[in-house]
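FORM 12-B: Structure-to-Sequence Request
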């Protein structure tokens, strides 16, 4: 169990209903431990020290300006100037060292603290997911909480680290500048800084409007992520029904809502930055103008005071310019945190972590249901269980029988305490189960569900999830022995031994790489490994072949001895020996008794037994499998043949081979940006306006260099012309302020338009490319649906981070650096070259190193956190299984290991990346020191005037500052580069492996045989062949006696479902070919081919939405309501749907959880029948149906197929459903070993006859 002390650092274990208004940034720091807090304090202290360095620099700058002024006036001799310059230069070097060290320490400390803090938040949030009631995530509108953890944590980490550090430094610079300038001249300081509060007010208003917009966008993206997770986790169904366009359309609906909200930020972004630059340059203009007036009146005696205050005002205003853009990111981080805290704060009424409740010393297994009534939370007005009372004695086996939707599986959920009854109570050994400790209760129960749930991992990992706490404490060797023992008991050990890595073989997400029967046997092994006191078997053998069913039934009979066993079954052969059989309908008990008693009554149960009987006579199986090529068989089956392939048959290599070696292509940053911009031709007018505004804004940097130097020069001139010039150039500074306001307002507005459009497009493109990928693409471990859903969120976020305001700021900084450097070279190449080549190469080199390091780190963290997101997504969708196995702690530990590994491996690269960043932020002090030293020398020898010096010096200084700001934003560059490379990589995968046919416009032939010629096949991730030379042929369907139904029979894992997958073109044969008429199906248009093929899978897949939405999945145009009713009538689901209050518009819930397994399957059958397919593929289509529904559905399928001349290829273990097939092909070990009708195979095929005997109910 997750004990309270395992809670993440700094957060109480108990659930607390904290209002959303408290979900702000300070609460995030509750997840920081003492070490993290120490790092935070150290980072803040170092940041303050680093920030103070800039205002101190203004004192030195002002002092040297005064010295240069006096030197120009002749009041200071060269020797005194040299001495003063040397002293000041040393102080500049001290400031450089201090800022370098302090910036490095602050950046490293806050970055490490942020990833550790968000690590704790991730872990705690995931734990809260595991502790939430299982029904909560079935509620419509919940979104994708697992993906939300990844994306929100990334935003929060950025908000804590870089953004918060920049805000702290900005505020420090502002406060220190204010203090320094107040000390130097308080009156001028108060006058010049009066413009700054206006910027505060405007920014505050913008942030207040921005916060709810960010929250609305986060909600829309969460809904999109939930849809993506559902679609990608059932990609086979999406492809089979050509539902890609429909899914993309639904996904785009959520993106459009987010885009609509994002467009509201148009004006907000404009006002977020532009007031700052208006204040900066207006403050400079006011400082010079007012300062000169005060200088003339004698209130200021020294030019150095004015220059110090001007620089302090500039620093104070520009520091707010550093702060305000960060507020948008901090707002986004706060909105992301609010979403996570809303999940964290949700109280859990059935919390498996709490150490509450009674723990009896033993469990006998006496179960009682006393007037139990229950309705699902999503449909409280429809009771599923209605006043049900039943007593189940300890050690007895009770079977529950009834039609689909009668409440059988709901009883399992109530016993497992996934839900609590609406009325009545359930007791265990006399204790109300609500008073028992939840973990203790669930550890007494072993559950095998109707649809087996396996997890990404190895066979060993999946079976070992069933171990008890005591068993997990055993050695590794002992655990492996227990796992092998359980697998032997469940008849799966032999199959596992044949896998490439045995028990360490990866079986993929949901066990997709093995058959349904194999998954079920692994689930049974997982259940029985703990020797539970109570067994709950919800259709445990529904996915097994007759022989395996017989074997497993013997195992279950053996292990259930001494256990209280509740069996839910449609196959009555599995429950005939039950001590008691309970028949329920509509949530009420209608019949009770033993098998013989109920047969004698001749009621509902007896009719079910009769319907499932295969024969009234028993035939003796032969010792060997007879050849199917007897003369009688050959005559009666002239239309069928097992053929040899043509000598020139085309060999088709598996299309997924290229996926095993994914394209690795490294693109430069410029190439990535050029690719993005080249694809946005429709936005070129917007880009052109941004470009014009950017050049206007960039021009202010060299312009202010000229204005600064001119003003300093005229301050040195005491003539009336000097005063007039000061007024003129101060006015010019005000015009620069107006120009910057207009430019940055346009940049803010237009960049929002650009970023919203581009990220909308790439989110949609990523999803579209993923959903059109070959099925083989999803078979790789790194391509789990959870990981891909996380990628769908993080990749566009990274692009948006760059393409919002950052890309324009970077462009401005580049242009400013080049323009300022050119200005300096034009006025004096000697000093300019020394300063430029002394500083800029270091800046460029450090920035390049930082981008490289951060890119590599981001790519690795993306992989790690995508893996963690995949695990979280899988856990949420399989929460019932995790709850029943009480393996919340183990799942959390696995998630924690992944996150901890990412954090641990990030520390060294982060510390390395902080070095070039610190250098880029402090190098300007060295440039200034060198400039003052060498410039004074040039002035003393008469090469440069003071005006020349200041123009060159300030221009190079501004170029350095622009370059520093460029690389300060390099983090977004590295992240965007990785995102763009992934996009290009995905495009390459899609183009090379999209399964596009050779003749994309070629339609399937209207008639002609379906033939399979010497087909060999193995799954991409495994070399073990699944099909070994399968050949069969079915002749044309257009004659009155045409073949309409063929069946594939055989043991689990013999290749039946794999052959259906090849017919659906999920994969391509390793060799051999499948033809429809004269055409190889691989040469037909994939979309049009699938229009003629329809699939009903063994495990039905429904999507969030209405029943109507699920039935018409992928159809265009949409069928009429009458056509939908007809399909539902054929699938025997119409009466049930019409009985619902909302009928066709009833919401199915996530994964169709609002419906029973049988109801889901019948809706899936209706979905297939409404398409009127030429070829209908049924993969255990009736396995989840009760006997009565199965009979009706089977009759409907037979009638529809014969009336419309359709070909049905069915896989079935329940042989009663295929006895009337035109031909049955028997497969074993990937080969066809016989074919014929049911009666012929009973006589001549020992394997088939043996399977029939195993299912016979009324042997005589």
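FORM 12-B RESPONSE
SEQUENCE OUT:
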């Amino acid at each position: 169990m997750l004990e309270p002390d395992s809670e993440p650092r700094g957060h109480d274990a108990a659930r607390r209903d904290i209002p959303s208004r408290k979900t702000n940034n300070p609460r995030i720091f509750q997840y920081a431990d003492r070490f993290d807090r120490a790092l935070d304090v150290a980072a803040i202290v170092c940041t303050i020290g680093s920030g103070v360095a800039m205002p101190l620099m203004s004192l030195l700058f002002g002092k040297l300006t005064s010295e240069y002024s006096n030197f120009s006036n002749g009041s200071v001799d060269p020797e005194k100037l040299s001495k003063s310059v040397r002293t000041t230069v040393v102080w500049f070097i001290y400031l450089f060292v201090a800022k370098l060290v302090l910036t490095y320490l602050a950046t490293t400390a806050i970055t490490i603290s942020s990833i550790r803090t968000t690590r704790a938040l991730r872990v705690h949030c995931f734990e809260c997911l595991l502790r939430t009631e299982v029904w909560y995530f079935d509620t419509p509108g919940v979104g994708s909480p697992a993906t939300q953890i990844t994306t929100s944590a990334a935003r929060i980490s950025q908000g804590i680290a870089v953004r918060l550090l920049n805000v702290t430094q900005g505020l420090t610079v502002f406060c220190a500048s204010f203090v320094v300038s107040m000390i130097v001249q308080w009156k001028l300081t108060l006058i010049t800084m009066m413009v700054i509060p206006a910027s505060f007010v405007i920014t505050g208003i913008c942030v207040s409007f921005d916060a709810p917009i960010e929250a609305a966008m986060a909600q829309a993206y969460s809904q999109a992520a939930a849809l993506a997770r559902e679609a990608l986790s059932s990609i086979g169904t999406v492809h089979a029904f050509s539902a890609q366009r429909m899914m993309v359309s639904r996904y785009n609906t959520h993106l459009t809502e987010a885009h609509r909200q994002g467009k509201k930020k148009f004006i907000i972004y404009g006002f977020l930055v532009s007031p700052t630059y208006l204040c900066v340059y207006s403050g400079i203009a006011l400082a010079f103008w007012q300062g000169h007036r005060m200088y003339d009146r004698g209130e200021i005696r020294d030019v150095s005071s004015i220059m110090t205050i001007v620089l302090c005002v500039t620093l104070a205003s520009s520091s707010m310019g550093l702060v305000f853009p960060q507020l948008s990111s901090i707002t986004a981080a706060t909105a992301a945190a609010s979403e996570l805290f809303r999940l964290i704060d949700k109280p859990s009424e059935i919390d498996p972590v709490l150490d509450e409740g009674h723990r009896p010393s033993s469990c006998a297994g006496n179960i009682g249901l006393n007037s139990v009534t229950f309705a699902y939370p999503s449909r409280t007005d429809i009771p599923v269980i209605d006043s049900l009372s039943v007593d189940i004695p300890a050690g007895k086996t009770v079977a529950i029988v009834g039609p689909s939707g009668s409440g059988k599986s709901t009883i399992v959920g109530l016993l497992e305490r996934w839900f609590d009854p609406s009325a009545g109570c359930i007791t265990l050994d006399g204790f109300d189960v609500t008073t028992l400790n939840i973990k203790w209760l669930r550890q007494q129960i072993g559950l095998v569900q109707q649809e087996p749930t396996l997890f990404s991992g190895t066979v060993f990992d999946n079976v070992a999830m069933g171990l008890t706490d005591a068993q997990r404490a055993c050695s590794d060797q002992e655990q492996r022995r227990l796992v092998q023992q359980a697998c032997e008991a469940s008849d799966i050990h032999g199959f596992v031994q044949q896998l490439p890595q045995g028990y360490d073989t990866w079986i993929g997400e949901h066990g997709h790489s093995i058959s349904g029967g194999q998954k079920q046997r692994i689930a049974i092994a997982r259940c029985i490994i703990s020797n539970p006191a109570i067994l709950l078997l919800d259709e445990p053998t529904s996915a097994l072949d007759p022989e395996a069913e017989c074997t497993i039934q013997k195992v279950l009979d053996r292990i259930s001895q001494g256990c209280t066993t509740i069996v839910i079954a449609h196959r009555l052969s599995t429950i005939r020996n039950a001590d008691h059989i309970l028949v329920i309908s509509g949530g009420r008990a209608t019949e009770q008794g033993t098998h013989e008693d109920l047969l004698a009554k001749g009621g509902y149960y007896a009719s079910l037994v009769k319907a499932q009987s295969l024969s009234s006579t028993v035939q003796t199986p032969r010792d060997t499998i007879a050849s199917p090529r007897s003369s009688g068989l050959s005559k009666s089956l002239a239309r069928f043949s097992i053929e040899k392939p043509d000598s020139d048959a085309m060999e088709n290599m598996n299309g997924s081979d290229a996926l095993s070696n994914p394209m690795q292509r490294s693109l430069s940053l410029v190439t990535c940006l050029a690719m993005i911009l080249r694809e946005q031709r429709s936005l070129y007018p917007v880009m052109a306006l941004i470009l014009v505004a950017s050049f206007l804004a960039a021009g202010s940097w060299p312009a202010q260099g000229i204005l600064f130097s001119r003003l300093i020069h005229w301050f040195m001139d005491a003539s009336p012309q000097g005063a007039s010039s000061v007024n003129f150039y101060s006015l010019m500074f005000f015009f620069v302020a107006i120009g910057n306001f207009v430019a940055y307002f346009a940049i803010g507005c237009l960049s929002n338009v650009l970023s919203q459009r581009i990220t909308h497009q790439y989110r949609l493109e990523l999803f579209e490319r993923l959903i059109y990928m070959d099925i083989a693409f999803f078979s790789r471990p790194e391509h789990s649906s959870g990981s891909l859903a996380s990628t769908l969120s993080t990749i566009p976020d990274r692009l948006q981070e760059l393409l919002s305001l950052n890309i324009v700021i970077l462009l401005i900084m580049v242009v400013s650096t080049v323009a300022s450097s050119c200005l300096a070279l034009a006025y004096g190449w000697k000093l300019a070259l020394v300063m430029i080549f002394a500083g800029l190469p270091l800046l460029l080199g450090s920035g390049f190193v930082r981008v490289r390091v951060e890119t590599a780190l981001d790519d690795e963290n993306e992989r790690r956190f995508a893996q963690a997101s995949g695990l979280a997504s899988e856990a949420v969708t399989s929460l019932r299984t995790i709850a029943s196995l009480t393996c919340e702690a183990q799942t959390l530990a696995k998630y924690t290991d992944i996150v901890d590994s990412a954090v641990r491996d990030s520390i060294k690269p982060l510390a390395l990346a902080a070095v070039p960043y610190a250098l880029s932020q402090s190098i300007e002090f060295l440039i200034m020191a060198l400039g003052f030293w060498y410039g004074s020398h040039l002035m003393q020898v008469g090469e440069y005037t003071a005006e020349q010096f200041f123009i060159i010096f300030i221009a190079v200084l501004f170029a350095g500052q622009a370059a520093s700001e460029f690389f300060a934003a390099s983090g977004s560059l590295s992240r965007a580069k990785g995102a763009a490379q992934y996009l290009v990589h995905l495009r390459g995968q899609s183009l090379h492996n999209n399964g596009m046919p050779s003749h994309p416009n070629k339609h399937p032939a209207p008639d002609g045989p379906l033939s399979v010629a010497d087909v060999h096949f193995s799954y991409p991730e495994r070399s073990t062949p699944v099909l070994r030379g399968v050949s069969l042929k079915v002749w044309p369907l257009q004659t009155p006696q045409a073949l309409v139904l063929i069946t594939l029979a055989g043991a689990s894992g013999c290749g039946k479902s794999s052959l259906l997958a090849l017919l659906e073109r999920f994969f391509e044969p390793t060799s051999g070919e499948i033809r429809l008429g004269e055409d190889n199906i691989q040469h037909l248009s994939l979309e049009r081919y699938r229009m003629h093929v329809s699939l009903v899978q063994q495990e039905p897949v429904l999507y969030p939405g209405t029943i109507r939405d699920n039935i018409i999945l992928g159809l265009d145009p949409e069928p009429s309501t009458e056509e939908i009713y007809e399909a539902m009538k054929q699938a025997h689901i119409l009466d049930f749907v019409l009985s619902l209050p909302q009928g066709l518009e009833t919401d199915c819930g996530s994964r169709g959880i609002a419906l029973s397994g049988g109801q889901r399957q019948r809706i899936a059958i209706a979905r297939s029948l409404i398409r009127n397919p030429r070829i209908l593929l049924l993969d255990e289509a009736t396995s989840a149906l009760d006997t009565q529904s199965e009979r009706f559905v089977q009759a409907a399928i037979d009638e529809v197929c014969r009336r419309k001349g359709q070909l049905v290829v069915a896989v079935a273990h329940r042989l009663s459903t295929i006895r009337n097939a035109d031909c049955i092909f028997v497969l074993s070990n990937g080969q066809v070993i016989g074919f014929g009708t049911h009666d012929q195979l009973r006589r001549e095929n020992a394997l088939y006859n043996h399977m029939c005997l195993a299912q016979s109910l009324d042997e005589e």
